[in-house]
């Protein structure tokens, strides 16, 4: 107002600016109507062009880290800072709401001092569903090593978690870190120690001696002592593995994780009031030197010969004699020196004995001694060669290992009875579709992540059939878990104890989840919502068998919440086999037979 009044009095723009203490361009803009008093000019929001991309990305993966998304939009041209980016995510409400994540909180932890150069923490990170071209099966393996003091981490991809691959990956990690600390910390890996006692194995003790370090094993049920490497595992999984495309090679993937670990060296740290970075802290750590050559562990892998008579290994190609395209070629590497075998590998008796000693460490002491004595007696009586005796011991070890794994799966499954389909009398229950049950027994529905619903009144054999299918899955090597009406109560209790995320992860883990007797008892408070969360966690990922006496049309009344019931049915029936069973009760069959026998006896005496 003052500027306009002075202008009407004939004042110049310069005089008005000096009188009001403003810039001449500001006064000119007000006089020309380009600006309004009391309103600041709004600069364009640099986040708006990337808003559709962020919305779509978080709709596809609601739990994607903001730092991972920030790395992606920076690559697309975003120039703002990370703090500005996260404020924009919250302002525009880009991330979908997740009730379990919203309600979960952290647990109490204790700070453990890590002097510089004292400790490196190692851990394997299993990476699910790697590209098929890697040829490693259902999981890839990443060994992560972290300097506990500074937080610098490096990681190496490996084909397996066995002893030779572990030693090779350890050597690569410490070389990437620029040296080794005085102590190495592991959890209870079977390739490092005996899991039952925590004692370091003789084979790994030789590795530690070669590098001049000590080995620390985490006490049982105290995994928080490796919190530094667990955090690095989480960063690698969220910021790297979630972004790996299907067509990436192993070499390109290793380059990607190396770039991420180098970029994370720029993380800021505040030490005694001074601001520094992870890289500067790591550079100041007094690390020990590394031997020039790696530890001489013999690594054996199988490779397919290309039409050009080449085999690929560790980013390089090695030639073999021509005439063997598409053939499996054994390849060995000992102490960093690779070599290709042009004929089936002949393993010496000493090598077999070394394998035997490693394998027998997994057997219980009594079983190992008994197996050893039995095979040695057989070798003396039948004049068996040492190689044949060692081969027989390896077969015994494999059989014992498989038996222990089966027993562990059965304990975890918690099946009420060891029923199989052979125990079910299809003739006595004509309401069961035997062809459908036989098809389900092939377990093809597990490969498709399909569900099975058994619907019928009490006593018609729903539980028996579900347990029989569960036992077949256990025998086939799948993880199975059986639960009844207590599932909703467990979820409700976990929510009260702030363990909701852990509870959901537990129920999402088994390949097959059996929920028995749904609808027989009223659900507790929020029970329908908890059951829906379990079904939603497993949707299109793993299979669920559900037995109920409530017809599908009556689920709305049984669960009390029409929205939850409809959403649950939508996910269950998307890929599902529904078996309706209607017939006489299995449990009352004995009483019916006894009544028929008594009736026949009375009729015989009367006649």
Describe the structure concisely for a colleague.
The protein is an alpha/beta fold and 607 residues long. 44% of the residues lie in helices and 15% in strands.
Question: What structural keywords apply?
Answer:
607 residues, alpha/beta, 5-stranded mixed β-sheet, 5-stranded parallel β-sheet, flat
Number of strands: 17
How widely separated are the two ends?
A: 123 Å
Q: How would you sum up the major sheet?
A: 5 strands, mixed
The count of helical stretches stands at 24
How would you sum up this structure, described in words?
There is one protein chain. The chain is α/β, with parallel strands linked by helices and 607 residues long. Helix content is 44%, strand content 15%. It contains 24 helices and 17 strands. Helix 9 links the parallel strand 4 and strand 5. Helix 2 crosses helix 3, helix 15 (386-413) packs antiparallel against helix 18 (462-475) and helix 19 (486-496) packs antiparallel against helix 20. The longest helix has 28 residues, at 386-413. It is flat, with a radius of gyration of 33 Å. The N and C termini lie far apart (123 Å). Residues 334-366 have low confidence and may be disordered.
């Amino acid at each position: 107002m003052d500027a306009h009044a002075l202008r009407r009095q004939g004042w110049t723009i310069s005089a008005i600016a000096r009188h009001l203490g403003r810039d001449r361009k500001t006064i000119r803009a007000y006089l020309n109507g380009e600006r309004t008093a009391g309103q600041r000019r709004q600069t364009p929001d640099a986040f708006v062009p990337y808003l559709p991309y962020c919305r779509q990305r978080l709709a596809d993966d609601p739990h994607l880290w903001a730092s991972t998304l920030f790395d992606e939009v920076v690559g697309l041209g975003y120039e703002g800072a990370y703090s500005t980016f996260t404020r924009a995510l919250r302002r525009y409400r880009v991330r979908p709401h997740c009730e379990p994540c919203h309600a979960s909180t952290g647990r109490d932890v204790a700070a453990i001092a890590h002097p510089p150069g004292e400790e490196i923490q190692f851990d394997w990170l299993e990476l699910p569903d790697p590209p098929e071209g890697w040829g490693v099966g259902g999981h890839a393996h990443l060994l992560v090593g972290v300097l506990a003091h500074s937080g610098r981490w490096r990681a190496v991809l490996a084909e397996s978690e066995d002893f030779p691959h572990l030693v090779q990956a350890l050597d690569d990690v410490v070389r990437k870190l620029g040296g080794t600390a005085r102590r190495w910390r592991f959890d209870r890996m079977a390739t490092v120690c005996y899991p039952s006692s925590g004692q370091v194995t003789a084979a790994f003790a030789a590795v530690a001696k070669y590098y001049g370090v000590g080995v620390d094993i985490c006490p049982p049920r105290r995994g928080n002592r490796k919190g530094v490497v667990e955090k690095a595992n989480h960063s690698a999984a969220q910021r790297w593995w979630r972004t790996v495309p299907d067509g990436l090679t192993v070499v390109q993937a290793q380059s990607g994780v190396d770039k991420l670990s180098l970029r994370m060296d720029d993380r800021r740290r505040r030490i005694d009031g001074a601001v520094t970075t992870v890289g500067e802290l790591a550079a100041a750590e007094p690390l020990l030197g590394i031997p020039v050559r790696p530890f001489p562990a013999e690594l054996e892998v199988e490779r397919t010969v290309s039409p050009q008579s080449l085999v690929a290994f560790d980013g390089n190609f090695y030639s073999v004699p021509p005439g063997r395209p598409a053939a499996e070629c054994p390849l060995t590497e000992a102490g960093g020196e690779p070599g290709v075998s042009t004929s089936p590998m002949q393993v010496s008796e000493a090598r077999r004995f070394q394998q035997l000693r490693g394998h027998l460490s997994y057997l219980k002491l009594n079983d190992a001694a008994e197996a050893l004595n039995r095979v040695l007696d057989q070798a003396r009586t039948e004049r068996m060669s040492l190689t044949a005796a060692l081969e027989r011991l390896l077969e015994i070890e494999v059989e014992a290992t498989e038996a222990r794994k089966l027993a562990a799966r059965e304990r975890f499954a918690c099946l009420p009875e060891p029923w199989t389909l052979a125990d079910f009398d299809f003739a006595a229950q004509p309401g069961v579709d035997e062809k459908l049950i036989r098809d389900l027994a092939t377990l093809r529905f597990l490969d498709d992540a399909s569900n099975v619903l058994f619907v019928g009144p009490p006593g018609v054999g729903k539980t028996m059939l579900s347990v029989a299918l569960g036992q077949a899955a256990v025998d086939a090597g799948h993880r199975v878990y059986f639960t009844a009406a207590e599932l909703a109560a467990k979820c409700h209790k976990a929510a009260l104890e702030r363990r909701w995320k852990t509870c959901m992860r537990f129920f999402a883990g088994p390949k097959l989840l059996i929920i028995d007797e749904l609808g027989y008892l009223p659900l507790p408070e929020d029970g329908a919502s908890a059951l829906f969360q379990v079904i939603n966690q497993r949707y299109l990922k793993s299979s669920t068998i559900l037995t109920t006496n409530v017809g599908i049309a009556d689920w709305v009344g049984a669960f009390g919440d029409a929205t939850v019931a409809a959403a649950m049915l939508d996910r269950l029936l998307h890929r599902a086999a529904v078996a309706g069973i209607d017939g006489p009760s299995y449990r009352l069959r004995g009483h019916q037979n006894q009544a028929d026998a008594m009736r026949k006896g009375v009729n015989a005496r009367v006649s």
